[in-house]
Amino acid sequence: MKKIVIITTLLIAAIFTKAQMKQQTISIINGEVSGPAMSALIDTMGDEQIVGLGEGTHGTKEFNELRISIIKQLITNKGFTVLCFENSFGDSYYLNEVINSNDSMEPSMKKYMIKLWQTPEIRDFLYWLRDYNNTHERKVTFAGMDFNFIASTTDIIQNELKNCNNATLVALAEKLHCDGVFYDSIWSNQNDTNFAFSFDTLVAKMREGYKATKKIDSIVKANNIAVSINFSRAVLNCRAWINGEENRDSCMAQMAASFATNENVIVWAHAVHLALQSPFADNSVGGTGGYIKKIIPSYFALGTGTADGTYSGTEERFDTRTNPMHIYNLPAIDKNSWDKYFTDENKQAILIQLNNLNNSGMELPLRLIGYGPPKGIDYTDKIKLSRLFDAYIFIKHTNANSYID
């Protein structure tokens, strides 16, 4: 296949006040970003233990390209060794094994990644990561911090305990795994309006899983049974699963922070999750980054946003490995919002270093786009952008993701 190289030059403006603006340029060549402004940003990120790279939508090609370029530089130039995705912990654990093998990447992505991440850019990056690990003594680990799918996580626990010579632990681990498989079967099918299941049965299974996880953890500790760090993370992930969606941001933060004991970690997720606080007064959504910062103070949050163009999303409510993805046009932005403020700067891309900026007390709502259709797009409460992120990149016109077949 003929390789097409697209060269795009983006204007980057580091805004210090409304009246004073320092303009800098970067270039993106076939998805690789460079230039003094980005080099300075990466130098700043490189001093932190955890870096959160947030996306303004789950379905924007440029956000993927930008972050992949940053990740490569953080790995090769700054020594970062863990990449943690908004993806199931257990699924990511097994995908990491595939990355460090000779197996084909695409079938494994379909098996171990939600559909949102099954893009050509991420596939090519995972192959890059394989090549990097094959040529470097210190490997990079691909990890996950979410718990929408849990059976792979319970499988880690079961596999580690199957030869422990403790019949009680073996039975508990088998029970936990069965509960996890049952839960995944519900999660995978609940987008189908014709799929019927008992919510009470599901809750009962989760409670049984909670009890089994607590007993496993208690017996292992009481008997000083040697377990791996990934076993301990799997137990933590099971507890996150049982805590439920209302505690998702704090649970994902604990998972991400668990990788930062002796490693430098990059976290990939929606910008609202990686924000330093929730952008809503009721703290209903977001703020994984704030929870991370409480655990690991050396944390840097990058947000991204866009104004117009297209993005990809799905009509389905729950994120699975098989969501049908569609291309949508981004609707017009509200006149009184951060998105309109950056659009009025009339630059294709703007970089704002917020960790040294007061924003002069300005508070505006920020457009919130996940993976749903345009009818579900909303705005946050009014907030200073510096309360959410240490830096922010706004790309005026962007394009929808495509997905591997």
Give a verbal description of the structure:
The chain has 405 residues and is α/β, with parallel strands linked by helices. It has a domain at 7-86 and 266-398: EreA-like (biosynthetic domain) (EreA/ChaN-like  fold, 3-Layer(aba) Sandwich). It has helices at 36-46, 61-78, 89-99, 105-112, 120-135, 151-161, 167-189, 199-222, 229-243, 248-258, 271-274, 288-295, 338-343; strands at residues 7-15, 21-29, 32-34, 50-55, 82-88, 141-146, 265-270, 299-313, 326-329, 349-353, 367-368, 378-379, 391-398. The longest helix is centred in the middle third of the chain and has 24 residues, at 199-222.
Mean pLDDT: 89
| Helix-strand pattern | EEEHEHEHHHEHHHHHEHHEEHEEEE
CATH topology category name of the domain at 7-86 and 266-398? EreA/ChaN-like  fold
* Regions with little confidence, pLDDT below 50 for 5+ residues: 1-25
| Helix/strand class | alpha/beta
Reported CATH architecture of the domain at 7-86 and 266-398: 3-Layer(aba) Sandwich
Based on CA inertia axes, which overall geometry fits? globular
Number of DSSP-assigned strands? 13
Query: Gap between N and C termini, in Å?
Result: 16 Å
Helix-strand layout with pairing:
Blueprint: E1 7-15, E2 21-29, E3 32-34, H1 36-46, E4 50-55, H2 61-78, E5 82-88, H3 89-99, H4 105-112, H5 120-135, E6 141-146, H6 151-161, H7 167-189, H8 199-222, H9 229-243, H10 248-258, E7 265-270, H11 271-274, H12 288-295, E8 299-313, E9 326-329, H13 338-343, E10 349-353, E11 367-368, E12 378-379, E13 391-398
Parallel strand pairs: 4-7, 4-8, 5-6, 5-7, 8-13
Antiparallel strand pairs: 1-2, 2-3, 8-9, 10-13, 11-12
Helix pairs in contact: 1-2, 3-4, 3-6, 6-7, 6-9, 7-8, 8-9, 9-10, 10-12
